[in-house]
RNA sequence: GGCACUUUAGCUCAGUCGGUAGAGCAAUGGAUUGAAAAUCCAUGUGUCCCCAGUUCGAUUCUGGGAGGUGCCA
């Protein structure tokens, strides 16, 4: 494995969905460019990486992608997926290549684990293995996840202690690591607790784009209505026409809204008009997601917080960023 | 107007053969080491519609009233 080039410094804008990260990034990039501090943008959003998920992921427009030299957008086919480690490595490469051009990378994103992997790195554990996972799932289907948890307790008691017997995602992963390496995950980790890690692998000026909860909730409802008005349903319909039933098995369809719209296409005859129920459901799911994002954000060391897109804040931020010497 | 059904958590509903009640969803908080917009965990005092009766005790049974739904006029 080639060791990554981490010889760069970057600006990171994090925050919940619909908090205004993208607009802030564009604003900041415009201002820095005007001050002869050229910059390029790097997407750190786990679903804007997909080529055909445009409307529902609130992806920057084609014009914006060109204008701001976006990296990390439209880099995956819809039936592919990108694990957190690969995502982090790609993002590092984007940042390093921008820095080589004497430009500043401005990274924008809010996907918890992916952000964490980018900032702090993951241990060198083996990537997921579909064959092993199939074997584990067979056991789980036959005996249930608590049984697999007991199995894990025999091979990696420390990790088993950390996990709830129903936590299938992590039990599966821990068993996978043991079956692939013959060693317990808890012994292979270099960090006792990843979340206590505060140092980033490279100098990073972290900006939290924050909204008061009530305002954020309103913005989320508004955004969901807007993206339906932009033709979200039609986007999903076109994907279904192109990929058929197999669309359901694509990991990309885990994105909030897409799977709900997809299933509604089979249950309503008038799919052209989004039902109020569907809009409400997706707004709720997005709000729940936003709260989880904020739990991740709260763990990071933040250099600057912008509340409710306050323009004065942004001017202060600009001054600080310009004289930032890590 | 008559008949039937119905009224319990923010919502949809269980349930208590009479001893003041619990699921799902929502809400709130937390976790998070390669599918993470995923996944998992924790948190439930609510005039059990109102009034009266029976009873040691009524959300539960009886009577009356009010709201809702459906059918018939």
Got a strand count? 5
Integer-rounded radius of gyration: 21 Å
CA-CA gap between termini: 29 Å
- The overall pLDDT average reads 91
Q: How much helical structure, as a percent, in the residues?
A: 40-55%
Order of helices and strands: EHEHHEHHHHHHEHHHHEH
Q: What is the helix tally?
A: 14
State the low-pLDDT regions, or none.
269-273
Report the structural category: alpha/beta
- Spatial arrangement of strands, main beta sheet: 2-3-1-4-5
Gross morphology: globular
Question: How would you portray this structure in words?
Answer:
Helix content is 52%, strand content 8%. The chain contains 14 helices and five strands. It has helices spanning 21-34, 62-67, 84-100, 112-120, 130-143, 145-155, 157-162, 168-181, 185-188, 213-229, 232-243, 258-267, 276-297, 311-322, and strands at residues 10-14, 39-43, 104-109, 204-210, 304-307. Strands 2-3-1-4-5 form a five-stranded parallel β-sheet, sandwiched between helices. The protein binds one RNA strand of 73 nucleotides through helix 3, helix 4, helix 8 and helix 13.
């Amino acid at each position: 494995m080639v060791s990554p080039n981490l010889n760069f410094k970057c600006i990171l804008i994090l925050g919940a969905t619909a908090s205004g990260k993208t607009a802030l990034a564009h604003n900041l990039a415009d201002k820095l460019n005007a001050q002869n501090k050229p910059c390029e943008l790097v997407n750190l959003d786990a679903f804007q990486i997909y080529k055909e998920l445009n409307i529902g992921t609130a992806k920057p427009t084609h014009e914006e992608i060109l204008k701001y030299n976006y990296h990390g957008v439209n880099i995956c086919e819809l039936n592919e997926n990108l694990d957190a480690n690969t995502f982090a490595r790609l993002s590092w490469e984007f940042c390093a290549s921008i820095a080589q051009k004497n430009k500043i990378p401005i990274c924008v994103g809010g996907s918890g684990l992916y952000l964490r992997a980018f900032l702090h790195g993951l241990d060198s554990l083996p990537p997921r293995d579909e064959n092993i996972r199939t074997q584990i799932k067979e056991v789980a289907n036959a005996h249930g996840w608590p049984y697999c948890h007991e199995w894990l307790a025999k091979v990696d008691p420390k990790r088993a202690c950390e996990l709830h017997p129903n936590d299938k995602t992590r039990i599966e992963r821990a068993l996978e690591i043991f079956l692939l390496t013959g060693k317990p995950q808890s012994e292979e980790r270099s960090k006792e607790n990843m979340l206590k890690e505060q140092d980033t692998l490279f100098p990073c000026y972290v900006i939290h784009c924050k909204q008061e909860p009530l305002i954020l909730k309103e913005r989320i409802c508004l955004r969901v209505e807007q993206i339906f008005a932009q033709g979200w349903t039609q986007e999903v319909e076109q994907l279904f026409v192109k990929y058929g039933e197999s669309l359901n098995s694509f990991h990309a369809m885990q994105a909030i809204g897409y799977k709900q719209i997809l299933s509604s296409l089979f249950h309503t005859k008038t799919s052209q008009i989004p039902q109020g129920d569907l809009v409400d459901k997706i707004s709720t799911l997005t709000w729940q997601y936003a709260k989880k994002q904020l739990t991740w954000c709260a763990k990071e060391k933040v250099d600057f917080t912008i509340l409710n897109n306050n323009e004065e804040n942004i001017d202060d931020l600009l001054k600080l960023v310009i004289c930032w010497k890590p």
